[in-house]
């Protein structure tokens, strides 16, 4: 097995992993849960970006612990997936360059 074959296989694996992380990222609930205090009353909103602007969606005066944990967990996963996608993009770019050499990939 030549080195180029190993690099091609690694490139295919990286592309597949990147697509998997992007799919998982799209399945997470969008936005993050925000608590606002207005005139001594507590209100919960989900903040998210839409067309470059921050939007707030009202969730109520009280939010269940389950929903709070769900959004907190999604926030951690989102950061982890974005980090992994960024690393994979760099790896894919490097592998494509290594495979290219003097011939097209």
Describe it.
The protein has 105 residues and is an alpha+beta fold. The chain has one domain. 58% of the residues lie in helices and 24% in strands. The chain is built from two helices and three strands; from the N terminus they run H-E-E-E-H. The protein has helices at residues 3-27, 65-100, and strands at residues 32-38, 41-50, 53-60. The chain has a three-stranded antiparallel β-sheet with strand order 1-2-3. A hairpin with a 2-residue loop joins strand 1 (32-38) and strand 2. Helix 1 (3-27) runs antiparallel to helix 2. The chain is elongated and about 70 Å long. The two termini are 18 Å apart. The model has no long low-confidence stretch (mean pLDDT 90).
Topology:
Blueprint: H1 3-27, E1 32-38, E2 41-50, E3 53-60, H2 65-100
Antiparallel strand pairs: 1-2, 2-3
Mean pLDDT: 90
- Spans where pLDDT lies below 50 across 5 or more residues: none
Distance between the termini: 18 Å
Number of strands: 3
Question: Which range best describes the helical content: under 10%, 10-25%, 25-40%, 40-55%, 55-70% or over 70%?
Answer: 55-70%
Which class best fits the helix and strand makeup? alpha+beta
In quaternary terms, these chains amount to single chain
Give, in spatial order, the strands making up the sheet with the most strands.
1-2-3
H-E order: HEEEH
Strand content: 15-25%
Shape: elongated
Largest sheet: 3 strands, antiparallel
Count of separate structural domains: 1
| Cα gyration radius (Å) | 21 Å
Structure annotation, total helices: 2
């Amino acid at each position: 097995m030549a080195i180029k074959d190993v690099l091609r296989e690694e490139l295919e694996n990286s592309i597949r992993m990147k697509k998997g992380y992007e799919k998982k990222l799209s399945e997470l609930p969008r936005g993050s849960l925000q608590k606002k205090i207005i005139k001594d009353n507590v209100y919960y909103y989900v903040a998210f970006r839409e067309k470059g602007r921050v939007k707030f969606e009202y969730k109520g005066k009280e939010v269940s612990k389950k929903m709070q944990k769900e959004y907190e967990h999604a926030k951690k996963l989102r950061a982890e997936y974005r980090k992994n996608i960024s690393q994979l993009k760099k790896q894919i770019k490097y592998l494509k360059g290594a495979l290219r050499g003097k011939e097209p990939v």
